[in-house]
Amino acid sequence: MPQTYQQYLQEHREQHLKELFDFLKIPSISSLSEYKEDVRNAAEWLKAELEKTGMEHAEVMKTKGHPVVYADWLHADGKPTVLIYGHYDVQPVDPLNLWESDPFQPEIRDDKIYARGVSDDKGQIFMHVKAIDAFLQTDGKLPVNIKVLFEGEEEIGSPHLPAFVEEHKDLLAADLIVISDTGMPEKDKPTICYGLRGLCGLQINVKGATSDLHSGEYGGGVQNAATALVELLASFHDRDGKVLVEGFYDKVEELTAEEKEAFAKLQVDEEKLRKQLGVPELFGEKGYSYTERTSVRPTLEINGMQSGFTGEGLKTVLPSEAFAKMTCRLVPKQDPYEILELLKKHIHAHTPKGVTVTVTEFDKGYPYVTPLDHPAIQAAGRAYEKVYQVPVTYTRGGGSIPIVAAFDNILKLPVVLMGFALPTENAHAPNEHFHLENFGKGLETICAYWNELQTLIFS
Amino acid sequence: MPQTYQQYLQEHREQHLKELFDFLKIPSISSLSEYKEDVRNAAEWLKAELEKTGMEHAEVMKTKGHPVVYADWLHADGKPTVLIYGHYDVQPVDPLNLWESDPFQPEIRDDKIYARGVSDDKGQIFMHVKAIDAFLQTDGKLPVNIKVLFEGEEEIGSPHLPAFVEEHKDLLAADLIVISDTGMPEKDKPTICYGLRGLCGLQINVKGATSDLHSGEYGGGVQNAATALVELLASFHDRDGKVLVEGFYDKVEELTAEEKEAFAKLQVDEEKLRKQLGVPELFGEKGYSYTERTSVRPTLEINGMQSGFTGEGLKTVLPSEAFAKMTCRLVPKQDPYEILELLKKHIHAHTPKGVTVTVTEFDKGYPYVTPLDHPAIQAAGRAYEKVYQVPVTYTRGGGSIPIVAAFDNILKLPVVLMGFALPTENAHAPNEHFHLENFGKGLETICAYWNELQTLIFS
């Protein structure tokens, strides 16, 4: 009897982990120019892996920024075609001193793999490569047609991907898109994420005097750039977590009755979460539950700010400059371009006296939702339930994958988000990790999903 | 005919500048522990210079921190005894990249000496040493008895000096104290500073979650440490520059009628100042002139703040920490200890939900005023007018020299502040400098002052 994919995966577990470690060692940090070569190396590694697996037409394809990796296997006649999207780039690692091990020297501790990018997103796309490998090695064929599209700029907002997708529309034509770059709330609680928040970002620079001033000589005489910045930043929210930018909430869609029911099933143990996060209390927009606030309500967050003297001790200086970086998470039907205009209008109206303010825009990504009752969504639910042996829940994700809405707009395909990461795995923070248990179960779930999909017919 | 002090000073100008440059080259930064040896070296250099001049009992005296330099010349029987105070320590230099020349390699450009500490305070105390030198070399004696007390901790709030002064009360007994660590508004507008603002400082640390969080996953669910900090900081002022801390202004003394008249004579060209500082407009506490705001009104300033990601580009992180450093300039009769308690009470009452706040206190210094009509003040006015050939103005300084109030409390002496620095000389900032013209005129003014003082009788 030929080997099953489960047997193959179990037998080759050690080898697969070794290969994953090789992938994780490449510091493919897309946001910092000094890692440009490493990003390319990661693309080349991935292409070679796909070729070894048996995928065809594997190629590292140019863009105006970091390259895209493509490959396909299109011999499942009459079966659906799945486009798998993921990213091989990773977040920066700072603050480095908070990592317990080298972010680019993967380690296994307590049944978790520790490395930058293992959860977001290399571990997850690697599982897709190995799932393909498992079928081709055991069955000689895939249950469905597969195309992979792995980009290197997701962490910087996928600036060149929409143009790439537009340019290669025919190459990328498929019946649905599957993305594994999200998560489940807890280890044994599989979730299908059927929506994502959008994103927009900007930097505010405040300028006072030509240079820093002596706070005795000039203090009281001119506006302090730091004071002006905090006044401006404080104008963005009320004390109950609501964003005060005029028009911000105008286009926000309320949940459907069905969604409200599904959300009620998402039990979050708030006290447990509070302790785990180490905060005195959870906090956010008044009138909404924790789950709603982190998935279906928009936010405006300060990601970083700096002004004046921040070294040891005291320096009686009146800062002449101050800046803050901010991002919004958006929900349907907010438009990131429109929100940025509203933010700029608010900044303009609230700029304190005595300083000048400049605004630089960053990334923009649209929010996204696939209808809950789509057959591809329901098939994914069945795949999870088969492997995890518990009912799957349906959730809308708090994070953003800007390209999802671009796929929707350009390729007009349903998107299925099947993630295996956990919120505790420190994505974007020090000591990022991935549970080995989900590595194993994720591989099987993906394989189960291809089996489920082969029976569906897409119009 | 023996040489006059004016002739001596002119003849030895080049040599004196060379000696000053040697003094300036020593990076005596008191706030940074890695310069501890340099601070000591500056003290030793100063002691040697005083000995060369002919001062007696020159000594580098221990304190719990950086040492104090003492010396005296007490042979002017029946004449007043002057205690000259100054400091040989300097501010840190960051941001270094904004300096046009090495802060510790003095240069003369456009008739100005550029170096850290040349204006605040080494250039000024050096002039005192050379004035003593001029008298002893030309006349063999000083017109008054002189004691010098040069400390190494003024830039960090003189923490050990009050105890030192208390311990050496008899050694430091005198009829008045003269301090050259302040300035005049413009090059040809000599000013006697008869009051100083006090100082207190603190650092606010805000803590949210245990670590930085992914802003998609958690944004909206917990308080953002940066947002909490800006809310707290914004609560300190109204939009018209007034400090909102309860009780802050309670003990502030209004100006006397005589002072109001003297202040009216201090014509500040606000448009010229605005252009010079490069601000869109001057700004401060509503209802008070620029001069009042920078000298007789108290302030609360943010000196620095930082949170989250401040590097290149964007990072969608929800910061778990944020801090700000703040200082107040105080006026009579505000008490720095009391003000710190009021600030802490305000912080406590305004701490936003979902974070914890810790406060660390820094320096404390009392505000100070010598009556305008004191004979020593009037004598200093005559000395300035003799050299500068224009009427002197009387002003209250914006800056703080914390030890002044300690001198008042412990030694019970009138303090005469005769400064020669200019507000444009970048004290506490990059490219600090000192005008050669004031170097020359300052030397002569000090000499003229000793001559004026020798006829006064102190009870």
From TrEMBL, chains A, B:
A molecular-function term among this protein's GO annotations: metal ion binding
Transmembrane segments: none
Pfam families the record matches: M20_dimer, Peptidase_M20
Residue span(s) of domain Peptidase M20 dimerisation: 194-354
Stored Gene3D superfamilies: 3.30.70.360, Zn peptidases
InterPro entries named in the record: Cyt/Met_Dipeptidase, Peptidase_M20, Peptidase_M20_dimer
UniProt-listed SUPFAM superfamilies: Zn-dependent exopeptidases
GO biological process: proteolysis
Keyword terms of this UniProt record: Hydrolase, Metal-binding, Protease
PANTHER family reported for this sequence: BETA-ALA-HIS DIPEPTIDASE, SUCCINYL-DIAMINOPIMELATE DESUCCINYLASE
UniProt-listed NCBIfam families: PRK06446.1, PRK07907.1, PRK08201.1, PRK09104.1
UniProt name for this protein: Peptidase M20
Organism: Weizmannia acidilactici
Lineage: Bacteria, Bacillati, Bacillota, Bacilli, Bacillales
